[in-house]
Amino acid sequence: MRQRTFGRLGWNVSEIGFGSWALGSNWGPQNDEDSVKAVHRALDLGCNFIDTARAYGDGRSERVITRALKERPRGSVYVATKVPPVLPGDWPPSPYDTIEQRYPNSHVRAEVEKSLRDLQTDCLDLIQIHTWSRAWNRNPTAFEELRKLRQEGKVKGIGISTPEHDQNAVMDLIREGWLDSVQLIYNIFSQEAQEGLFVEAQKHNVAVIVRVAFDESALTGKLTEATTFPEGDIRGNYFAGDRLARTVRRVEAIKQVVAGTEPNVATAALKFALKPPAVSTVIAGIRNAGQAERNCAVGSQAPMSDELEAKLRTHYWRRAFWHQGK
Ligand SMILES: NC(=O)c1ccc[n+]([C@@H]2O[C@H](COP(=O)([O-])OP(=O)(O)OC[C@H]3O[C@@H](n4cnc5c(N)ncnc54)[C@H](OP(=O)(O)O)[C@@H]3O)[C@@H](O)[C@H]2O)c1
Q1: Which of 78, 172, 183, 201 could form a disulfide with 125 if both were Cys (CB 3.0 to 4.6 A apart)?
Q2: CA dist., res. 179 & res. 8, Å (int)
């Protein structure tokens, strides 16, 4: 598996990282045994970067990752986790929410302590603020608290995950030097990061973690208009109403574009996300060993041609406020 440099932290991370949301919650039934096997398979194949969060099952994803890591020599596997906002509350946050309400210092500290406990470590590799409001850019107290935690030796890197409806909200934080990494959505449909986030991240040597490269599984090419999702699977909301049919039609068009050049849409989706030089790693969502194999394999295959990337850029789809479902 090829590796890339993780921004100013200088880590060598695998091109394909492990996205572990489904291991914790929100993706329908998930068996912990399958999760542990998936983590082992990915790490066996050279993946050395895992993304998780407190919010993924109130630490369940963190705990299952810990279980797998304890079954093998640790080596240099980087685990990134996230501090949720105070809940209940809007996600992404309302513009009227204050940082004192959603990310008070005491909450940031308490959540970091919970991650240290569930990841069974004295120091987190990377802690990310899970969502954000641009209203807080002038008073980013949560990052001051994370810096204190870094001075205390409890975290190494500090990052953020973009709010899905307003990804450029984190631009000021990059410019003002608060971030070692930014986690953002970039895929064949959602290409907003090309507007400036990639450029700014590179300029400030901030690592870029790409999430949702498959557009919540649509860009694996396996969904049909008849696909149904189990109860508790976020895709029931994400593809609510006519969204599934509209998405499937667009994926069918993409299949025609990649045919003959890439083996399938899933491979093309990961390679497309890996094209921008600013990207450090693409955290593919993985929930079983088979997906670990298929996704990790892409990290040692030939990159996508510039020509195919240019064709796929025309499939940019501006969906505005889509993420919370209808
Ligand atoms: N706000 C945030 O910070 C935020 C938000 C979203 C995601 N994330 C992070 O980013 C990661 C990736 O995003 P995501 O998991 O939401 O979505 P994704 O990567 O776009 O899609 C992942 C899903 O696609 C299916 N899949 C994966 N590989 C496949 C393959 N080779 N063939 C067929 N199906 C495959 C799996 O679901 P099925 O097998 O059930 O179909 C899997 O759960 C997350 O796991 C999480 O770590 C962060």
Answers
A1: 78
A2: 10
